[in-house]
Every structure is written in C-alpha cells, then in structure tokens.
Amino acid sequence: MSRHQTQPVPGRRAFLGLLVLAAGVAVAVLAATSLFGDNDGMAVDVDAGKALAQANCAGCHAIGQSGDSANPAAPPFRILKTKWPVENLEEALAEGIVVGHETVEMPEFEFDPEQIGDFIAYLKTL
Could you read off the pLDDT of 25-81 as tens digits, one per residue? Predict the structure, then answer.
C-alpha cells in the first residue's frame, strides 16, 4: 500500500450498520412521542385540543401562553399544570366537568375520550 491509502478498519461496516439502525430507532421513538401522548397509546392532536379550548373555554379562561382570563375567577390554562397534574382532569371531562365559581357558574362540558386526549395534550404544551 502506498502511504496515502488507508487500511480498512475491521468491523467498520457493522459499526455503520448499527449506527444507521440506532438513528432509525431514535427517529421512530421521537415520531411516536410527538404523535402519541400519555393517552394510553391513543393518537392525540394538539391542534384539535387547542380548538376545543378556544370553542369551549376561551370565553372565561386565558387559553394561551400569555394574557389574562376574561373572567378573573377562571384561572389561565397555562398555570393549571403547575398546580395539578392535568391528567387528573380526564375523569371530570369524561363525566361532565361542573365547577361553581362564586359569581358565575361554569357550564358543564363532557368530552369523548379522543377529545379528552387532545385537550390534555394541548394543556401540556402550555
């Protein structure tokens, strides 16, 4: 061999194959993590959860990263996960969440399991 040629490295092909496989697994895990929330493996749609919040909650609650709630008694959604595990809302949303405020009654909401997963996934993004 001339001094400019390199010698083959033993196991290099196997190493590269494992590297490609590991990268593929990492991409698959990241894709699954963003597609599936903590909703028992059900696919969740964060945008659908945000749309639910906008349609049903934004009249009283601040539903975004900033801003005040229209109803001062209604906590901004961004602080919910700092006070309680948002997963604890799943049962209440399924059975019809009813909360009485001092001055205004909160309307009753009942979501189906897919909507609950979407809604909880959205709350986790805040």
Answer: 444 444 444 444 445 556 889 999 999 999 989 999 999 999 999 988 888 999 988
- The pair of structure tokens assigned to 83 is 């006070």
pLDDT tens digits along 78-101: 998 888 888 888 877 777 665 554
Cα angle at 45 between 40 and 49, to 5 degrees?
Answer: 100
Contact yes or no for 46/125 (Cβ under 8 A): yes
Calculate Rg over the CA atoms of the chain: 24
Which long-range CB contacts under 8 A does 101-108 form with residues at least 24 apart?
Answer: 101/71, 101/73, 101/74, 102/73, 103/73, 104/60, 104/71, 104/73, 106/60, 106/74, 107/56
State which amino acid sits at residue 111.
F
Distance CA 67, CA 99 (A): 22
